[in-house]
Structure formats: C-alpha cells, structure tokens
Write a structure and sequence with these properties.
By secondary structure, this protein is an alpha/beta fold. The chain has 25 helices and twelve strands. The strands form three sheets. A six-stranded mixed sheet has the order 8-9-10-5-11-12, sandwiched between helices. Strands 4-3-6-7 form a four-stranded antiparallel sheet, covered by helices on one side.
C-alpha cells in the first residue's frame, strides 16, 4: 500500500490531535508533573530564596480560597484574611499546646486551622446567604470582619496553656513546620517541598470538586442565581458550602503561615493584607483556580527581584505601575491571556465541535416528546394546582389581588390581559419567586404556600419566565444537562435525558455552542427544554413564543398541546392568533384580579375586554 506525503502528514496530525485530547483530559497529570518539576528544581534554590518562595505558595493557597467564591461563585469576599488569621492563631495554639515532643506541627495545626476557618466562614456565610444580603452588603460584612479581628487581636493579652497572646506583640514561639525529610535536606528546601505537596493536594481536591456537578452548579449560581433556583437547586446551601470550603482553605493557609514564620501578629488581619488577596487572583486569572498561585508568584517574584536593588529604591512605584498595566491590558490575568491565545490558534476538529451556527427552525420530535412525558414521574396521574384567593403586596402596590384558579392536565390554560394586569406576578407567586401575603396555594392537595422556590420545583412545578434564562457561558448541552441532573441526581440518567432532549428539539447541531451565542428564539427553545428536563407536573410558560419565527410558533403550539395531555400547562401570551392555535381555556386578568374566562373567540368579542386593551373607560370604570 502506498502513502503520499499528504496522507502521512494528515495521519501524524491526527495522532498528535488524539494525544493532545488525552493529555487535556488528564489534567491532574499535568498538575502532578509541574509540581514534580518545581520540587526537583527547588534542590537548586538558595535557602533564603526557598524560604521566601514557600510564602508564595501559602499566599497562593489564600488566593485559591478567594477564587472559589469570587471567580467561580461570583461573590467578592474581603474577609479571607480574617479566616486566614483565625486559622493561623488557632492552629498555632493547637501546635503549641498539643504538639508536645512531636517534631511536626502538621497533625495539630493544619486540621485546627482548617476547621476554625470553615467554622468562621459558616457563621458569616449563614448571615450573608440565608439573610439574603445583597452582594455589596455581603462584601462589606466580610471586610468588617477583618477589621474586627484586627481590633480584637491588638488588644488581646492572654495566656492559653503554654501559648502567650501578646496583643500588638502577637504570638511567638510557634513550632516550625517540620517534615521527615528535614534530616536529609536543608530545612528551608524541605519546608518548601512539603508546603508544595500540601498545596498540590489542596489544588487537586478543589479542581476535582469544581469539575463535579457541585462545581457546575456553583458556576450556574454565578451566571444566573435565579435560574439555578428555578431548576430546583438549593442555591443558599450551595453558596454556604462553597464559602465554608474557601474558609477552610484560608484557615489551613493561615496555619501553614504560622508554622513558616513561627510568629503571628495582628497585621495578618490588616487592610493591606486583605486587599492583596484579590490582586493575586486578578493578576493570575480570576476563575482559573491556578491563577492565584501564578499571581502570588508573579507579585512575590517581582517584589523579590525589585527588592534586590533593581528599581533603585522605587519598588513600590514600579510594582504599582506593573499591577495597573496587568489589570488594564490583561483583564483575564496571566492565565486568561494564555487561554485566549490558545483558543485563537487553529486546532484539529475545532470547527466540527462548534455546530451549525446558521439560523434554522426547530422541528420537534412529537413521538419522542410523548415518550419523554410518559416516562417521567409527572405522567403518573394528573396533578391539580390550585390558588385560593392569593394576594401579594409590595407597599401600596397590589400586583395580585385575590386570584382563585385551578390547573390540571387535559387542556391548555392561557392567561391574558394588558401590561400590568398581574399575569407574570401571578406566575411568580405560584412558583415562590414572589411571597404570598394572603390565601393558599396547593399542589395535589398539599399546601405549598410557604414552600421555597427550589422546594416547589422539586415537587413538580416548572416555569419559563418572560425573558429566556440560560447560562450564557455554558454550552447548550451543559444547560440541558444541569437541568436534567437536578431532576435525576444521576450522571448517567442526566446524560440520557440530555441526549433525548437535544434530539427532540432538533438542537443536536447546536449542542456544543455557547448558549449566549444563540438567537433569542433559540434561547427560548433552550429555556423550554431545560424546564422539560425537570419532568414537571405543572409548567408555566410566560410569553414562550416571543422572538420566534412563524414555523417555530407552529412547532411550539404542537409541543404545548402534546404536553397538556399529561401535565398542566399554563401559558401567558399576548399573541391572540397563537393562543387560538392552542385550543385553550382563557382567563383574562385585570388589575391583579380575574376579569373574565372562556374561549378565545368569545372573549375577543367582549367589548369590556377590548376596552381594557385599548384603554377605553366605558366599561372598565365599573370594574
């Protein structure tokens, strides 16, 4: 068999491409190899440089704790140094009083530091997240915590066992970090290698967590917190868990710092230290997890180099200018710039993964849709959702003023009315987005009036809000998968539901596109698909046809009618022609109350309803 040069070249590129794909999947191998290379290279470090480089690793761990909650979850905490200092002080207390003759403080200091940091984060996080503080208020609270800790430690003079807390003089006589290899290697180098090993283990653990479904939900919370809750996720619990994880890493870093410096002072809680942590994250690359280590290395290395006299005594000025330049011209940080460069380079099969970006009408697979609905838990029996004279007030505004309705499978229900009639507000009351001040809501006879939004979603209520809500930075497949996983809690089952939903919606060609790159109409379809992945018993669709083409509207009408055979479907829509295709029972809302009910043809002949829509007062004034 003969091969020409082009064939051989193509084959070599394919082999190279396959190898690169395997290499990219084995992310942990790269981390271990890089760590091994650094550990090997440290044998040539001067003792002083090894000692300073150890602090960069510790600061990288501290930055990692912030990147979890800021870069991945979207909450800027300025209290990481508070957890860091708490872990340092309590970890050192444990080492001094429990270490005894043990040459290593790791058995006592690190667990105590991590546990105390996690506990402090749990207390503050509970106030922030379960108290539903805004992002700004939460950031200010974390910053205040650091100031309080600094003030408290400055004035704290106490003796705890064998440890002496000297207020502004800090705590001394902290046992140094010791490893088994200290007898074989110079102490500073051994400590560096040991701390590097700890940092690698923590980083690998965090990467594993953030690549799990938990991490994916955390990303979704950052991208669209409300949508994550409308998919049935307990957002507050996820936020608090991530915050506790970050606090434990900060506390562990503080305990390491105490063992490295063998001394702690209240300055560990200072404003300067608190503001350095976000800088590490920004310089290295926010949201990358490895970025904080790169940032700590870059800032520490630059400071070390300038401190040797290179800047002629202008270290602070040069450092400030360099940081400003990095933030302005490399907004994704050092790693972000590297990733953008790699993404811009052509790669084998890159175009194949993008899918067809051309606009096309969706054609649903009616048979597969019916199969999906029959296989879901929602189709076991028709479920009745009822609202009993529910009222919602916002100050003097009453968007929902005593609406009584019942919804079940068998026929589509439509809610119409002019803008401000209370349609969307009513839907939000049913799903728990808005609180109910009076009345009751029941689902299959169970009172869910006070149930939280995610609890109602888990009970079988689904909603697509007026504007399509998708996770713009995730692919179409990932959007559907995170919805399916919420309902199934099994990866394999979520994979199966996702593939079927992609096929049913004829969106397989768009599966690897980012949801934010889709057109408005395609995002509407994706949003509907995400809700269907939940296997709801009752589904609310708020203006689902907005932004769709005529062909898409016909497909949507067919989908809604098929759904109504097994679940309760409630549609809010302004397009009367679209409503007519649904053969729906229509309820007219006006000023937060039920005004009329019937079929669409009859209601369109009602002069009172025309008055409402046209703003005429002849009939409306008597309502």
């Amino acid at each position: 068999m003969n091969f020409d040069s082009s064939t051989l070249h193509t084959s070599s590129r394919l082999i190279e491409g396959n190898w690169l794909r395997v290499w990219s999947r084995s992310w942990w191998c790269r981390v271990v190899l890089v760590g091994g290379a650094v550990a090997t290279g440290s044998m040539f470090f001067a003792p002083y440089f090894a000692n300073v480089a150890t602090s960069w690793l510790i600061f990288g761990l501290l930055g990692l704790s912030l990147d979890i909650v800021w870069g991945r979850m979207g909450f800027l905490s300025l209290g990481q140094t508070a957890f860091y200092g708490i872990g340092g002080y309590l970890g050192s207390l444990a080492a001094i009083n429990l270490g005894g003759d043990n040459p290593s403080i790791l058995l006592w200091a690190l667990p105590a530091g991590a546990a105390s940091g996690a506990l402090a984060a749990a207390l503050i996080g509970w106030i922030i997240f379960y108290g539903r503080m805004g992002t700004l208020q939460g950031t200010i609270l974390t910053y205040t915590l650091g100031l309080l800790m600094w003030t408290g430690t400055v004035s704290l003079n106490a003796t705890v066992g064998q440890a002496v807390l000297g207020g502004d003089n800090g705590m001394s006589n902290i046992p140094s970090i010791a490893f088994a290899g200290n007898a074989l290697l110079p102490s500073a180098r051994a400590i560096f290698v040991g701390v590097l090993a700890i940092a690698l283990v923590v980083y690998l653990a965090v990467q594993w967590i953030m690549r799990s479904p938990f991490g994916m939900v955390i990303d979704c919370v950052r991208l669209n917190e409300q949508k994550a809750e409308l998919l049935g996720y307990d957002v507050r619990r996820y936020q608090l868990t991530a915050f506790c994880l970050s606090g434990s890493i900060a506390g562990l870093a503080g305990a390491l710092y105490g063992g490295w410096a063998t001394y702690l002072s209240p300055s560990i809680f200072s404003v300067q230290e608190a503001l350095l942590v976000p800088i590490y994250v920004l310089v290295g690359g926010i949201g990358t997890l490895a970025g904080p280590f790169v940032g700590a290395l870059a800032i520490g290395g630059l400071s070390f180099w300038l401190g040797g006299g290179t800047a002629g005594g202008q270290t602070t000025l040069v450092m400030g200018a360099a940081l400003i330049g990095l933030v302005l011209f490399m907004r994704g940080g050092l790693l972000g710039a590297l990733r953008r460069r790699r993404a811009a380079a052509p790669s084998i099969g890159a175009q194949a993964g993008k899918g067809d970006a051309s606009e096309q009408s969706v054609r649903i697979d009616a048979a597969l849709l019916a199969q999906l609905m029959k296989s879901g838990a929602a189709s076991v029996r028709p479920v009745l959702l009822e609202t009993h004279a529910i009222v919602t007030r916002f100050g003097g505004v009453v968007p929902v003023g005593g609406i009584t309705q019942s919804f079940t499978a068998g026929r589509v229900r439509c809610l119409i009315g002019p803008n401000g009639a209370g349609k969307s507000s009513y839907l939000r009351c049913c799903t728990g987005v808005f609180p109910v001040d009076q009345g009751r809501i029941t689902l299959a006879g169970r009172d869910i009036t006070r149930a939280k939004t995610f609890e109602r979603i888990r009970e079988g209520v689904g909603i697509k809000l007026q504007a399509p809500q998708v996770f713009s930075e995730l692919t179409v497949r990932a959007n559907l998968w995170i919805a399916a996983y919420s309902a199934t809690r099994e990866k394999a089952r979520a994979d199966e539901v996702t593939e079927k939903m992609l096929t049913m919606l004829a969106m397989m060609s768009h599966a690897e596109r980012l949801a934010g790159d889709l057109s408005h109409g395609q995002q509407q379809w994706l949003d509907i698909g995400m809700v269907l992945c939940l296997s709801p018993k009752v589904i609310f669709l708020d203006e689902p046809a907005a932004g769709m083409t005529g062909a898409d509207r016909r497909e949507l009408s067919a989908l809604i009618r098929i759904l109504s055979e097994s679940i309760a479907v409630v549609v809010v829509e302004h397009d009367m022609e679209f409503i007519k295709t649904l053969n729906a029972n229509v309820t007219v809302l006006h000023q937060g109350q039920v005004f009329a009910e019937g079929d669409i043809d009859t209601l369109r002949q009602d002069e009172r309803i025309l008055d409402i829509y046209l703003g005429r007062r002849k009939h409306v004034r008597h309502f």
